[in-house]
Amino acid sequence: MIPRIVTTPIAPLALPEPRVAPRRVAPDVVAAALPGPARDRLAAGDVLVVTTGQQPGLFTGPLYTVYKALSAIALARRLERERRVPVVPVFWVAGDDHDFAEANHTWFLNAGGDLVQIVLRERAADAPLVPVAREPCGPEIVAALAQLRDGTPETEFKPGVIEWLERWYRPEATLADAFAGALDTLLGQRGLVVLRAYHPGAKRIAAPWVLKGLDLTLSDGYTPVLLEARQGRDRLQRDGEAFVTRRSGERFTRAELERVAGEAPERLSPNVLLRPVVEAALLPTVAYAAGPAELKYLQDAAPLYSTLGVTRQPPVPRWSGVIVEARVDKLMERHGIDLAAFDGKPGELEARLVRHDLAPDTVATLEALRGGIEEHYGRLLESVVKIDPTLERTVESARNAALAGAQTIEKKLVASLKRLEGETLVRQIARARTAVYPAGQPQERVLTIASFLIRYGPGLVDAVEQEVARWTGTS
Fold it and tell me: pTM for this one?
């Protein structure tokens, strides 16, 4: 049975006004997309695109990666219906990214509902910062796949999910190519174009725009351009007529960088602010489906568009949501709580729910005791201050001590109830919290979709897609 999908918007959805006209996409850019009907549609003539993107992650990374892609698909369908022109959803695979610590792991819930991390391997602290487009999965990927396979429940869907991942996450495949292939297999038939921004064709046509970034200086004193040098991918800072890499201290003239752009464009790449500008230069983008962090930093990128003469693609919020499994739903219904109740300090919800299990007459007696203390000490205080005002604080201290005593009794009763009757409830709450707020973070930022597909099969993607369509007004 497919679990309930709950929409949790990160921002109101407002569709953009048209800023760009449909046009043909350059063949080199089309060549960077994985083949299939979606790419054919991108190459067919004048089009608009809705873009989104993400750096590659292990086993497609956290859930929000898939949510971004489904958001782009739904927004493209709605805009195509409204604009009456072809609108193609494009996922920009940012394989230039060198943050291996973000790409080398994923999380899943095992058969017992516990949170488990899979780590491919660590990169040595002094190793060059190689883009993940050239970082192979390596032999460690076999053990990573085995950990997912052995840790998840046996279902009718499990063999297909493992086969899907094994097809792409192979020792000789790069993390970027594995990610792109797996995402394309999952969503390509739904109309998504998976574009490898690190592909030679895309790098070649993007190089002139990246070079233009050398004329810009950001608030930190560096250009928005990175060069792969001796220590890997490195920021460039202008130094007179030359440019110097931040970590390795290598100097390059502009002529040398232009030669790199012509002969080895894969060595040049935009930073996080220049990247969307390059994307908008290469694609007729009508909207970008962005997460909360992107909605903020895309505002910071605004000056770069005007400086480079590129029409800015409007950011729109991606869909956000929670997969609420049946055991979590039942717990919430039984105790009358919502998802927000799990996003608190550890122990708060457990104590509150166990307190509700106190016998009604005990609760009533404790409430009457507290009320009586307040009432009688209040009367006593009125009499005392008439006789000797200096005793006011003495009476108040005695009242507070009496109230504290009643509270101590209640706390000890709750603790006893936890030990005698609440252990099962506490475990249930802990498992539910792990399912919806794993490691204290939103579910979509931690868990991979692979473990959910093992439990519920491809129908889960259909269910999420329907919720995204409802939220975007496509259905």
Answer: 0.87
